[in-house]
Specification:
Blueprint lengths: L1 H13 L26 H4 L1 E3 L3 H6 L11 H18 L11 E6 L6 H12 L6 E6 L7 H5 L7 H6 L5 H4 L1 E3 L5 E4 L8 H5 L2 H13 L3 E6 L8 H5 L5 E7 L5 H10 L6 E8 L3 H5 L4 E6 L11
Parallel strand pairs: 1-4, 2-6, 2-7, 3-5, 3-6, 7-8
Antiparallel strand pairs: 4-5, 8-9
Helix pairs in contact: 4-5
The protein binds adenosine-5'-triphosphate and magnesium ion.
Adenosine-5'-triphosphate binds next to helix 5 and strand 8.
């Protein structure tokens, strides 16, 4: 898998830029993020500052780390995501700009990838990003970004009187980034996520701003039903594989659970001494499109 992923990574890095988007080039669509209208979600959301120093110390991308290896790695990951999200030929696929991040098991780096991808996309000129924490049992996005929240996704789904703007946090010092926290712990979270309300919300998030990408951090697919349910409404999935840890059987089982998602890509996380080290340094990432064969570990 690593060899195939490495090949794919190199191909992606050198690929032309369909529709003005490409891994090696700037995003040039000529579109500008839409200004939120009065009374729109953004107008009702709270604003909080991100602590860029703390984020950088924690291993996250900030506007000051634009030439770091990490920033470069996430540029390579985000380009194909942006291409897929905003390509003109939509076909019948929906919600291409809704991207779920999942993995087979706990601790493989889903939140790390979701947050860094969001921070990287937030620095784009032509796109904005909404990061949604859908891991109610282990909500990590808000503490990871150093924000504070009382309400979030579960409250939104449980109370029809609430609007996304009522629970949304906008980053005051990174204007292209907004966050929907996980929300109050709810024993019925799996049922809330499986409800029509969740389907309507994700459709709405996908359509409300045409230049915005929604990234959803999810729990592990083999430990909870939510990724499977969310995969019905997400146009893309990033599946995180922890190098030398996630085994092939777990990868296959988890991929089967999210197989309704029309576009699934693999992100190899925490790669040391092999692909990642060769390409980027201590921690590396590889990127493989759906359909690439997952080889047994001995071949990796
Ligand atoms: N590439 C990386 N480099 C350095 N640290 C990493 C990397 N990926 C993940 N980590 C660290 O590993 C730990 C687990 O990562 P993270 O919380 O993102 O995993 P997760 O898959 O979201 O876990 P959970 O299933 O519990 O939500 C965190 O401390 C995170 O900062
Ligand atoms: Mg997590």
């Amino acid at each position: 898998m690593i060899e195939r992923a490495a090949r794919r990574l190199r191909e992606t890095a050198g690929a032309p830029s369909p529709g003005g988007l490409g891994p090696a080039g700037p995003v040039a669509t000529g579109r500008q993020p839409r200004e939120p209208a009065r009374g729109d979600w953004a107008g009702r959301s709270v604003r909080q500052d991100l602590d860029f120093g703390a984020l950088e110390r924690g291993g996250f991308i900030t506007p000051d780390s634009e030439y770091s290896p990490l920033a470069e790695q996430f540029r390579i990951i985000k380009r194909p995501v942006l291409i897929e999200a905003f390509k003109r030929d939509h076909g019948t696929a929906t919600n291409r700009n809704v991207v779920m991040v999942t993995s087979a098991r706990p601790g493989e780096g889903k939140t790390f990838v979701a947050c860094n991808l969001a921070l990287s996309i937030a620095q784009e000129r032509d796109y904005s990003v909404l990061l949604v924490d859908a891991d109610v049992r282990h909500p990590s996005v808000v503490p990871t970004l150093g924000l504070h929240a009382t309400r979030g996704l579960t409250d939104l789904l449980a109370d029809p009187a609430l609007d996304p703007g009522d629970v949304m946090i906008r980053a005051a010092n990174l204007s292209n980034l907004a966050v929907i926290p996980a929300g109050s712990r709810s024993t019925s979270a799996p049922e809330l996520f499986a409800s029509h309300g969740m389907a309507r919300l994700l459709d709405d998030l996908a359509r409300r701003y045409p230049d915005r990408i929604t990234i959803i951090d999810t729990p592990p697919a083999l430990a909870s039903s939510e990724p499977s349910v969310i995969s019905l409404h997400a146009g893309q999935a990033l599946f995180v594989v922890e190098a030398d840890q996630t085994n092939t059987r777990a990868i296959r089982s988890a991929l089967a659970l999210i197989s309704r998602c029309p576009s699934i890509s693999l992100v190899l996380n925490k790669a040391r001494g092999s692909l990642g080290a060769e390409e980027f340094g201590q921690y590396g990432y590889a990127y493989a499109a759906r359909g690439e064969t997952i080889s047994p570990r001995k071949e990796a």
